[in-house]
Amino acid sequence: MVVILAVGVLLAATTTDVAKVSEPGVKLYADGTPYLVDRARDWVGEEKTGLTKEEERLLPPDTVGSRRLYQGKDGSELYCSIILAGRDVTSIHRPELCLPGQGWLIQNEYTQTIPVPAAPGGMLSVMRMNASRPAQLSDGRTAEVRSVFVYWFVGKDRVTPYHWQRMYWSAKDRILHNTNHRWAYVLIHVLVRADVQPGAAIKSPDDAMNVAAKFVQDMYPALVAQ
């Protein structure tokens, strides 16, 4: 896997001047940013935001993004973001590279399958990360808060939770088809709210994952281009 990834990166780097750009695998607004519906089933989203100033400074200029905070009918909250690459392959990066810089300690990471009727084969494989970090509570105490991060990559007619597979497909498309593949990176963040709000319904990482899975099942048809 390491060799495949290394070769893919090398070949992609030597074939940057491709003639064609694939269509995105996610729906878009008229301004070209990823579509994040403001309401779906039991979920209501707050106002949509885009890339932060820091992201705009660090990422290639044709990178675009959309973000919303969502609340479920049962009071559950989660954060969803979609980053869409442009022509530059460096637009997309794994959260394992940026979350530690935000203070998160990734405790473990593994793929998990979510039943999603709208996904190919009725199932969606995602990467799940259990993470924690210290946080200042409203009463002045410091507590260790836990979160679950769920992500996957979406291309035109392609979905994968694996960074190496995305890189392999990208290199293959550039070399064999002279096409730059525009990948979207979908990230969902669910906080274990009982860590900061005693009595909250989300009491464990598995509870947080269940919330994320329900959100994916409800929102998937509105995210992915058909």
Attribute tags:
226 residues, alpha+beta, two-stranded parallel sheet, 5 helices, 11 strands, 25% helix, globular
Residues in β-strands, percent: 25-35%
Computed over alpha carbons, the radius of gyration is 18 Å
Summarize the helix and strand pattern as letters.
HEEEHEEHEEEEHEEH
Question: Which overall shape is indicated by the principal axes computed on the Cα atoms?
Answer: globular
Q: Mind summarizing the main beta sheet?
A: 9 strands, antiparallel
Q: Supply the helix-strand structural class.
A: alpha+beta
**Low-pLDDT ranges:** none
Proportion of residues in helical segments: 10-25%
Structure annotation, total helices: 5
Mean pLDDT: 86
In total, how many beta strands?
11
